[in-house]
Amino acid sequence: MVVHHERHFEIADGELVTRMALDGHAEDRRAVYMALGRAAGYEDQASGLLAAPPNMLGEVVYVCTVMSDTLGWIVNQLDPRGDTINIAVSVADIMIFTTSFTYNQHREGMVAINTKSYDFDTTISQVVREIGIVKPTSRAEEPPICV
Predict the structure, then answer these.
(1) Does residue 35 surpass a pLDDT of 60?
(2) Is the CB of residue 112 less than 8 Å from the CB of residue 118?
(3) Which of 79, 95, 109, 114 meets the CB 3.0–4.6 Å disulfide criterion with 83?
(4) Is 100 within 8 Å of 54 (Cβ atoms)?
(5) What's the domain range around 67?
(6) Residue 63: CB partners within 8 Å, gap ≥ 6?
(7) What share of the chain is helix, strand, coil (3-state, %, to 5)?
(8) How many domains are there within the chain?
């Protein structure tokens, strides 16, 4: 059993819920939690966080994750009848990556991001690499001009 700390924040026009496991990665999860709190302090970022899909109860929940967490661990926090949860993971000292997961009712043992399904052993690191935070340009492409 893993104990979680959950906190509700009233921001902008809604409620943001953060969930942090109190486990061996608690320090790293706390850094993600703190970054979410800082982002929620900026109106544009707060509205972006609140625009994420809500769970079955209408709450926008962000789970503070680390790169080695598996999607199986995330899925254990979802209602198997069909539910959504958002994750946040640190990708740099002060930057976080967020995405949403939906329990895939149609394929046993799978979780989906948009329309792509992943198995439960997939790590957050693998998802972040596949989704891609930055798309590098090829050498053949002209770099953008900054004015």
Answers:
(1) yes
(2) yes
(3) 79
(4) no
(5) 4-131
(6) 19, 20, 21, 74, 77, 85, 86, 87, 88
(7) 25, 30, 45
(8) 1
